[in-house]
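Changelog-linked ticket: FE2/S2 (inorganic) cluster example.
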Amino acid sequence: MQPYTEKVMDHVRNPRNVGEIEDPDGVGEVGNPVCGDMMRLTIKVRDNHIQDAKFQTFGCGAAIAVSSMLTELVIGKTIEDALRISNRMVAEALDGLPPVKMHCSALGEDALRAAIRDYMSRQGKSLCVCGDLNCPHRNDCEERNKAREAAHAHAHDHGEHEGHEHQD
Ligand code: FES
């Protein structure tokens, strides 16, 4: 396996924003369907901006680095801009991940979307599974999401997950 970049190693050794925000405005708790690792992200939102974010991750080094970098990327962003952060962007901000570890970056994106979805529902609004606040095709997106989850489960059952890359 290719070695981790210096940036990844820096975030593994010295992860930023570890912990849990007291009285958060949104919570995202997700498991990686590929390996079963877990991430919990709590966010504080003020004036539509993510004021603070903290994570707890039970996973591999790449997952820790992704979680740490994700919190650095989202703090200060508007909800709309935070929704544009993809797993690829987080991996790029870490100067890349080894191909077999790209699936680990899905954990960060999924936790962020779950936390924002939770925040939205607390505001009495809902976020489409595609991540668009104003998506006009919600039923289609639900169907696509179910199909994607089924495909993940199938790949997991058949050991096809190494090197699999999460794409949205
Ligand atoms: S997140 Fe599970 S192996 Fe990296």
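Closing comment: Example verified and attached. The beta strands are 26-31, 38-46, 49-58. The domain at 6-127 is CATH 3.90.1010.10 (Sufe protein. Chain: A).
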